[in-house]
Specification:
The chain folds into 2 domains: about 80 residues, Cytochrome c-like domain (Cytochrome Bc1 Complex, Chain D, domain 2, Orthogonal Bundle), CATH 1.10.760.10; about 90 residues, Cytochrome c-like domain (Cytochrome Bc1 Complex, Chain D, domain 2), CATH 1.10.760. The longest helix is centred in the N-terminal third of the chain and has 18 residues. Helices cover about 45% and strands about 0% of the residues. By secondary structure, it is mainly alpha-helical.
Length: about 240
């Protein structure tokens, strides 16, 4: 048999074998198709690809707040999380993820991420009969009163002038303040940063939780420490009081 005849015979055998399994030559096998990115709805995959870099692989925080903190999830509603994820926060490190805001995710994918986060880490009893300050500010706060609030609740860790102490670093760093919104500051004051050892609104001063007014005032004081250009940018952020 010539080499050409051998090749033809081998091709015939391969075709016969495929046909016996019900697979036409050249047709992809079951499970071999690549899923288009916009059709991926697995919350774990989406979180790992889009959120873990800043919020931590296990939701415990990193460059940004811990999304796996049950206290945070108890005061930040799903609608707020969905909106911030979709739209981002201009002027900060939080980008927009929704396609119609310039991101790469569909509305269904964002819904899947938020549902997955809350299903995995939210706890119904996270507040345990406590009454936290409102997530969104009710007023703009008073920076002068905020200086006193800072001295009372924050200076033992962050130092008398906010530039760092024995237990925590600077809270008035210009670069940091230029990259966070007022609501982000408020969120950190209320829920703390457990991954960094920062307490929530109840733990700064033993036996004396911060009042809603205390939170608003100290955030106003912190915002007043921003560079002037960053203050203008912050005032234009549509996210404003809701993140």
């Amino acid at each position: 048999m010539t080499p050409r005849e051998l090749l033809l015979a081998a091709g015939l055998l391969a075709t016969t074998a495929c046909g016996s399994r019900g697979i036409a030559p050249g047709r992809p096998t079951v499970g071999s198709q690549v899923i288009p990115p916009y059709k991926i709805l697995d919350a774990g995959v989406l979180y790992a690809k889009n959120c873990a870099g800043c919020h931590g692989r296990d939701g415990k925080g990193g460059a940004a707040i811990a999304l796996g903190d049950p206290l945070y999830l108890a005061i930040a509603g799903a609608a707020t999380m969905n909106r911030v994820t979709s739209e981002g926060v201009p002027g900060t490190s939080m980008p927009a993820f929704a396609e119609h805001f310039g991101g790469l995710l569909t509305d269904s994918q964002i819904d899947a991420i938020i549902h997955g986060i809350r299903a995995r880490w939210a706890k119904p009893d996270a507040l345990r009969d406590t009454n936290p300050p409102p997530y969104a500010a009710q007023d703009s706060g008073n920076p002068k009163r905020g200086a006193t609030v800072y001295e009372t609740f924050c200076s033992p860790c962050h130092g008398a002038d906010g530039r760092g102490g024995k237990r925590a670093g600077s809270i008035v760093d210009r670069s940091y303040l230029a990259l966070v919104s007022d609501q982000n500051l408020r969120t950190n004051v209320i829920v703390g940063r457990p991954e960094l050892g920062a307490p929530d609104w109840r733990g700064d001063l033993h036996g004396k939780p911060m009042s809603p007014e205390d939170v608003s005032d100290v955030v106003a004081w912190l915002a007043a420490q921003r560079p002037q250009s960053a203050r203008l940018s912050s005032s234009l952020r549509p996210e404003g009081k809701t993140r």
